[in-house]
Structures are given as C-alpha cells and as structure tokens.
Structure prediction request, 446 residues.
Amino acid sequence: MSSLLHRSLSTTPPTVVSGRGARLTDDKGRVYLDASGGAAVSCLGHGNERVRRAIAAQLDAIAYAHTGFFTNEPAERLATALVARAPEGFGSGRAMFLGSGSEAVEAALKLARQYHVERGEPQRYRIVAREMAYHGNTLGALATGGHRQRRAPYLPMLAEVARIPACFPYRGRHEGEDEEAFGRRMADALEDEILRLGPQTVAAFVAEPVAGASLGSVPPAAGYFARIRDICDRHGVLFIADEVMCGSGRTGSFFALEQEGVSADIITLAKGLGAGFQPIAAVLACGKVVEAIAGGSGTLWHGHTYMSHAVGCACALAVLEELDERDLLANVRRQGHKLGQKLLARFGQSAHIGDVRGRGLFWSVEIVADRTTKAPFDPRLKMAAMFKKRAQELGLLCYPSSGCVDGERGDHVLVAPPYDVEDDDLDLIVDLMGRTLDDCIAVAGT
Ligand code: PLP
Prediction:
C-alpha cells in the first residue's frame, strides 16, 4: 500500500528507476520510449552530463540563500541570458525565477496588476483569457485557464476572468472562411470583450502562443497575434504570453511568439527551461513594465521562499548551453518538420484521426468517431486515457487530454520528443501511435 497521494487512488503507476536519452526504465526492467517528455518537459531527454555537472557544482558552492538577503551568480547570469534572447521591448527588461509554471502565471498576473497600479490606474484589474486554455492549477492560474472539467470542482473559489474563444481552426473556422479571416475574427473577439468590460478596467490579456495541454499544440492563425498586439496597445492592456509549454525552443524558436513577428509585455517559461532536471520557471517583464515599477514604488510586490534558486538557475543555464552549442533548435525545426510529415502520412486519411496539428517538435492528433462530421467519441469511453494506457503497455509514453471540443467531449494525444530525437525514434513513435490507435478503435467497437 502506497502512502503517496497518487493522481489515481485506485492504481499505482510503475516505479521509474532510470532514464537515458529518450528512454525510461521501470523497476521491472521495462523500457519506454518517452515521446512526450512527460508534459513537454524533458527537452534534452533523460540524463545529461553537462546539466548534471552544473547542478553538482552549484550544490557544492551554494544551493540556497534567501533573495531577501542575497542575489546569486547563476540567477544573475540566467536573467541576462534570457533577457538577451527576448524579443524587442525587453532590452531593459528583467526576469524572475520561480518553481513551477503555475507560480510563473500567478506572478505574471500580479505583475500586470502592479504595473497599472504603479502608473496610477488602479481601476485596471480585469483579466481576459481564452476558452480551453490551460495556465496551471493554483487558484489564480486555474481561474485564468478555460478548461471546464479542470475548473468545475473549484468554481466557487475562482476569481472572475473574462473569456474569448480559442483560436482553434479545426473546430472554429466557418465554411469557406480563410485562415486570415478566421484569425481576424478571433482576434476581434478580444476587442469586443475589452469594449464590453470597459477598456479602462482591463489589466491584461493572457494566451498561449501555441495552445498546449488542453487543445493539443494548436499554432495560431496567420496574423492573429499581430492583431491581438495592436488591440492590446490601443487599449493600454498588457499582453502576457504563457510560454510555459510552447516556449524554451519547443516550436523551433526560443520563444514561440517570435514566429508571429510580435512581442508580448510579460512572458512565462517553465518546463523546457530546466528540462526536468530541476523545477524552474521564469517570468520576463519587458522594459516598460520594469520602468513603471522602478519609477513607482521601486519594489516587487511578490515573492516566494525559493525564488531565484541557485541550483535551478544553474541547471537552466546548462540547458541553454546545450541548446546553443549543439544547435538544437535547428534540429527541432528539421526533425519537427519530419515528425509532422510522418504523422500526416500515417494519420492524414485515418477514419478516426480528424486533425494532425503542431509546430516544431510539438504535435497532436485529435481522435474522432467520425472524420467527416468531426464527431468525437462518447466521453464515457475515455478515449484519450485509453490511448495513453495502451501506448504505455506497448512501450510508448505520450500525453493525452480530453475536452478539446467543449471542455468535456473530444480527445487528443500530444507528443513532444526531445530536441535531439533521431529519425528511427520518430518512425517508432508514429508506428506505435498507429498500433495504439488501432487497438483503441477495436475496443471502442466501431
Ligand atoms: N501554463 C501552461 C501553458 C502550461 O501548459 C502549464 C502546465 O501544463 C502551466 C502553465 C502550469 O505549469 P505547472 O504544471 O508547472 O504548474
């Protein structure tokens, strides 16, 4: 009997004992191909000598000292490195480091509020976010996210957040509407909502540049974020890009939003930033946000015990070195393109895959009961969960989610292999996904 409060109280998952590259091994000696790095975390695979040495050296020097008393070298260097990579507007920006994506989102929301209060606009407090977004599980982040199932038990405890539709072409585009017109319509929903709420009350708009966990790696429609940027600017609303899942190189550029040619005001990062070797997240604030605080109270109205943890920061610096020295983002673009092609070749005409979508090494397939009508399977079948379980039995780890149609119906499976994934593993991932799908369809009895 386990004393651990597992995600499921009726089953205990296998015990993992070691990992190398894209492979994990459990205590029974079973080997799994980790095609999703957990939740798009392990971007360097498992076991990395440079990162191991960096963590060990930092532990030997100093692991922890409270930020109320000290700064530390890895945190300073990491902040400099991230600000240097950040898009236009971040030249005089700054970074803070936290322990998880949810903490980063909470800090970003509070930073947006502080910005407005410091500038003498305390009436700006409202947040606008998108339906079906996932921004984390702490109460502020959960309130911001739009995943109905995950929010449902906590609804009475969640702050009110205004919501606009997700930019999700597979299910949102009208017949005959081209991509740009769709992107314009989706972005204009933000302006309508800001006007409805009263522009002078809105603090920030929050979105994942490439939608992650709850919709399944959906790239934005062309022109969508450029229009969002313009709308935010015209109404004095800050734009928070939640890059916890899609950032740190996952889509082929360090920041996912770079590919849209626009910049956010506040950016969150986590997952790939520490590649799973340490729990670390970042919030980047652009120059104008930093200047408002510097010219106002001069203090950050937020803090945590483990902020700027030296070991986490040393780890993230070593991850950045790996990305740069091995030119891994070029590999993400190259192998990501191949993965997309292979998924399309295998599932593009499949009767039960309605959509293959993604960017970089961040891809999803949406499972449907009927490809023509896009009808999802009955949620009682728990298709995504069944897929994950069967895939694991076949030795493949991938990341399932349900609710992509309306928060309850709809199943997709996400893969996010390591940035140095090779062709053989791409083939194996697609082959095992195909076998898993066939087995699940046989169980579903269609
Ligand atoms: N934001 C996004 C976009 C995420 O995908 C996630 C996690 O999946 C989070 C925030 C929350 O991160 P964490 O689980 O590290 O708290």
The CA atoms of residues 269 and 359 lie 17 Å apart.
